[in-house]
Amino acid sequence: MTPRIALFLAVLLTALALVPGGAHLAALPNKIGLDRADYFTAQQIYAGWNLFGIVLFAALAANLALALVLRRHGRPSGWALAGGLLVAANLAVFFAWTFPANRATGNWTHQPADWERLRLQWELSHAGAAILMLAALLCVLLAVLEQLPPGQHRRLDR
Fold first, then answer.
1. Which pLDDT tens digit goes with each residue over 11-68?
2. Which end of the chain is least crowded, N or C, by CB within 10 Å?
């Protein structure tokens, strides 16, 4: 794989992986105060979003592949590796906090007694994951900028 293709895939997949977390983060202020019935109704709009997991794992692979492709280029490789580690941290947050809340509620179709605790856990885990994915995207963008020829930085400022 060429560095240009690896850079393109890492940026594209990391940006796409930010979409669901960003959407959850944007919706959080409007959803966090909903009563039980309204919250469980609102949660049904996320049916099928589990397919974004494919994008997350692809972003992880793309960032790690980019780090490997750029391994002889110093800082760009480090930025790509940092991006990959942040995507991995996003997945760790999902499996530590989001997934257990999904399981306890049957993907928000079952209303357990501690639903408010689970809602807070679910919402905050998505917010944290969104921040991690934004940081991952910034890292991969820094890897791209580090790859520009020295004079190219000046041309971008015009």
1. 999 999 999 999 999 999 999 999 999 999 999 999 999 899 999 999 999 999 999 9
2. C
Cα Dmax for the chain: 61
- Domain locations in the chain as residue ranges: 3-157
| Amino acid (one-letter) located at 92 | A
Place of tokens 């594209």: 12
Q: Which amino acid is at 42?
A: A
In the DSSP assignment, the letter for residue 74 is S
Q: Nearest Cα to 57, choosing from 88, 15, 26, 83?
A: 88
- Residue 114: strand, helix, or coil: coil
Record the tokens describing residue 96, joined without a space. Answer: 């530590």
Token digits of residue 44 = 């049904």
What amino acid occupies position 12?
L
- pTM of the full structure: 0.90
> How many residues comprise the chain?
158
